[in-house]
Amino acid sequence: MRKIHVIGIGAGDPDQLTLQAVKALRSTDVFFILDKGEVKSDLVQLRRDILDAHMPEGGYRLVEARDPDRDRTAGGPAYSPAVGDWRSARAAIYERLIAEELGEDESGAFLVWGDPALYDSTLGILEEILDRGAVAFSYEVIPGISSVSALVARHRTGLNRVARPVQITTGRRLAEGFPDGVDDVVVMLDAHQTFRRYTDEDIDIYWGAYIGTPDEILVSGPLAEVAPFIEDVRAEARERKGWIMDTYLLRRNPGL
């Protein structure tokens, strides 16, 4: 039976791969990569760099396909259906790649940024394909160093404080209000710099973009002081590269 490896490859640094991930790479026959277009071509190159670093002898095939476009203008009630349509379009592509490019006794792999279990669609897509029943395969998930772990490590801070919870959420959710009962909040997938809504509170921010890559940018400090700087740095980086991947930790200081 065909086998699929879903490999967490960290935030971009080839040194962030675990030994388990390297072993999975070296037992894979075919690697599937979705091309997001010329603007994000360096994301494909980063995956190639990881393969070159850990499999310099080659011995594998690389199969690329174009990633379907997602309606990023959809908001409110239309947001979830738009994401669902995009995931189903991806599932159709994955299904075709597995059926046409992978032999019955071969293993294939999808290289997932960070960790496959954290705000990534690959596992849900594979389950959708299996539910369709057109192609059979087993799959294994290899955890990776998430951008969240890399962020706090690069800032030399902890993810949580002693005996206190931490919450991971999205910019869309943060826009609805600061989570109740939590003072340490990690925010991902925030295209609108929602942290700006909270500059009147006593909050520190630990922000990072392109974490683990040569383009890495780190900013930290009191939110009210550094928010304008982050806005400027982020805008410049996005203009220069055409895309940006960033995340941040908000640390509220209650009663101080």
Under CATH, the homologous superfamily of the largest domain reads Tetrapyrrole methylase, N-terminal domain
Q: How large a portion of the residues is in β-strands, by DSSP E?
A: 15-25%
**CATH class descriptor name of the largest domain:** Alpha Beta
The appropriate CATH architecture of the largest domain is 3-Layer(aba) Sandwich
Low-pLDDT residue intervals, each spanning 5 or more residues? none
Can you summarize the main beta sheet? Answer: 5 strands, parallel
Oligomer: single chain
Treating each run of at least 4 consecutive H or I residues as one helix, how many helices?
7
Pfam family, one: TP_methylase
Domain Tetrapyrrole methylase: 3-226
Organism: Streptomyces triticiradicis
Protein name: Precorrin-6A synthase (Deacetylating)
